[in-house]
Model the fold of this input.
Amino acid sequence: MEITEKLLVSLGGWPVFKEAKSIRNAGRIQDAVYAPPILKGRLSEGGREFSAGLRIRNPVDIENLCPCRDSRQRGLICAHSIAVALQILAPVAARHAVAEQAAAKSFSSTPSTSEAPRVELGIEGSLRHLEAAISFHYSRPGIQNPNAEAVSLAKLIACGFENDKGKAVLRGEDAVVKFFAADLPRLKKNWTIREGERFQHVTKDIVRFEPRFALKERSDGWLDFHIHFTAGKEAVLSAHDLQRLLQSGKPQLKLADGRIAVPDVDLASDLEEVLRDCDPSQERGAYKLRESQRGYIESSIAEWTGKTPPPAPALDAKALGPLRERLRPYQIEGALWLLKNARNSSAGLLADEMGLGKTIQALAMMEALPGPHLVVCPSSLVWNWSREASVFCPNLRVLTIEGPERAERFPKIPNHDLIVTSYALLRRDAEHYKAFVFSTTTLDEAQHIKNPGSQNARAACAIRSKSRFILTGTPLENCIRDLWSLFDFLLPGYLGTRKDFQERYEKPLAAGESAGVWLRLLRRVKPWMLRRRKSEILKELPAKIEQVVQVELSPDQKAAYTQLQIAARAEVDAMRESGGAARMKVLTALLRLRQACCDLRLLNGESEAPSAKLEALLELLGEAVDGGHRTLVFSQFTSMLDLIVPALDEAGISWCRLDGSTKDRGAVVERFQSDASISVFLISLKAGGAGLNLTGADTVIHFDPWWNPAVEAQATDRAHRIGQEKVVTSIKLIARDTVEQRVLEMQAKKRILSTELLEPDSVVGLSIQDAQDLIG
Done:
C-alpha cells in the first residue's frame, strides 16, 4: 500500500503529524525501510537509538510498532512512527546536534515528562561562522521531554543551522546577520540566550531597525496607524523607506557613527502583507483604517513586538439576565462576548465545539439586550429554538415565522423579542423583512450560506440588523472558501472581495505556502471568533471512544457490487472524455455502490439476499442492550431505516424514529430521553444530525459513512454533550474493500480542516481522480 501524507495525517491527526515533521526535520531518523506491509526505522532520542514503525495492512488496519508509551499504553499512532514514514517520503540526512548529545541520557533510565523545559542557547563565533549549543533544564533532575526538545531543535535548524561534525553551525555573513536581526530577537522571547564575547564584539557595530507602532482613534470613528523604524539616534525610516531599502539589493544602512543598521526582513514582509489586507488610505503620514481592523492590527503588533496588548475592559456578569444563574463559567464568558459585540453594533462568530451550548449562550445575550432579535436556522431546528427559549428565557416573547399563514405574523414582529424562521422561508419571505431593523441577527448552522451566490446567502445578507452573529461548530466544513462566505455576512468587505481572498489566501495555501499566510489569516479572523473545545473546558465530560467495525459483504452483495463497480468505471471514463458532463451519472453510480454495501433491497426491493451490515448492526445492538446501553443509529437513507425497523421488531428491541417526515420532533425526542425502556433511536442523518440533545444514549452507530466527517461528528455529539454522564462509544459500520472504506480516506482529508480550527484545504467538488479512487 502506498504511503502518502494524507494517510499519515489521518492516522495520527494534525498535531501528531506536525510533531513528526519536526522529528524528521531535526535529522533524528537514522534509517527507514518500507517493505509492505512493514515499515521500520531507527530514531535517536536522548542519546539512545530505538526502533519504530508501522504494519500497514490497509488504510483502517494499521498497527503501531513503536515501544513508546503512547503506543504501548494508549494504543495511539505516535509521532515516532509517523516520522519514520515521512523519512520514506522525503528523506532528511541524519544529524546529531551537539546540544542533544550534551543533554543525552539513557532512554531506558530517563523517565518522560510533559513538563516544558527551560531552553538555553549558547552562541559564539564571527559574522561568517557561528556555532550554537542548546541545552534543556527541568524542575528536577532525571526527567526529559523528548518531543519538546525535538521541537526546539527544529526551530534552531529552521534558523539555518546545520550539522558539522557534531556541531550546530551557521555559515555566511548574510545568514548570520539575518539571524542576528530577525531570528535571535524572537528566540529571546522564550529562550535564555548566552552570547559569547567574540560574537558580542563582532555584532557591537550592528544595530537593528526597531519598529515603532501607534494606533489612535480619530474623531470620525476611523483609526490612524502610525509606523516608523529607528536605528541609533539619527535614522528614522517610514514603512515605505524600509521597503525601498529592502528592494535595493543590500538591506543595510550605514549610520553616521559608523555602525550598520539591518532590518528584520520577515517582519517587514509581514507588515506589508497586513497593510495590503487592510487596504488603508494615507493621510498626514498615517494609515487610515476602519475600526473593524483594530483587532487584526493589535494582534499583529503583539506578534511583531512580543508585547501583549492590554485586555479590553470586560463586561460584568451582572450585565446578563436571570439565565446567567444556569450557565457554566465558559458560557457566561461566551454570552458576555456576544453581548459586548452586540452593544458595539459589530459582529461575532461563536465557533464552540459541538455540544458546548452555543444556543443557550446566544439566548443569554438576547435576554440582556432589547429586541427584536432574529434567528435563522434549518427548518428542523425552528421548534428547538422556540422550545429552548421558553425553557431558559420564559420572559422572552417568541414568534416563529413558519407555516402557510405566516404572512399574518409579520406585523406582530415589533411586539416580540425573538423571531425564529428557517433558511428556506427566509429566502421566500425576503421582501417582508425589508420593513424591519433587528437588534441582532443570528445564523445557526451557517453552512447554509457557504455558497455566497445562493438565495440563502443573498437573503441573509439583505437583512437589516445592528449586529450580526453566526453559531457553528464547523466554521470550515469543506474548504477555506467557507470562511470568506461567513465573513461576507458578518462583516461585508472585511476579508476583501471574493477574488482578493482567493488570490491572497486560497491559492497560496493550496500551493503549500502555509506558514506566514496561515498565521496572518488566523490573526485576521480571531478577533471576531470565539472557539472553545470540550477537551479544554469540560474536564468532567466523559471520554468519546471512536471505533470502526469492518463488515465482509455477503456473496450476493459482492457479486452485485462487482457488477456495479464495472459499470461505474465506465461512467468515470465517460466523464473523462466528456470533460465532466457525465458527472451526475458518476454520482449516481457512487450512490448505487453505497446502497449495495448497505442492503441490496435499496437497489431492488424484491431482493431476498441477506445484508451483512444489517446482521452486524443487530449483533452490536444485542450486545448494547445486554450491557444496559442505549443507542442512536444514524443512516442517510430513510429507506434503510425502513428495513431496520422490522429487524428490530423481530429481535424484540424497542425503538423510536425521527426523520424528515416526523411531525412532532420534540415529542419523539422527549419520549426517548424520558423512557429508558427504549433501547434504540433510529435517526435520519439529515433530519437529526444537528440541534438535538440526546444524552439518554451512550452509544452511536453510523450505519453508512457520509462524505463529510464534520456532519458525522455533529451527529455523534447529539449524545456526547453537556448532561452526558457516561463514556460515549461511536461506531462506524464499514464494508471492507468497498467505496465505504475509501470514503474514510476522503474523510481524513477533510478532517485536517477541523483539527486546528482553520486548516486549509483545496478540495472543491469531486474530481475525476476522486471518483476513480472511490470506485476502485
User: Anything to note?
Assistant: The longest helix spans residues 555-578.
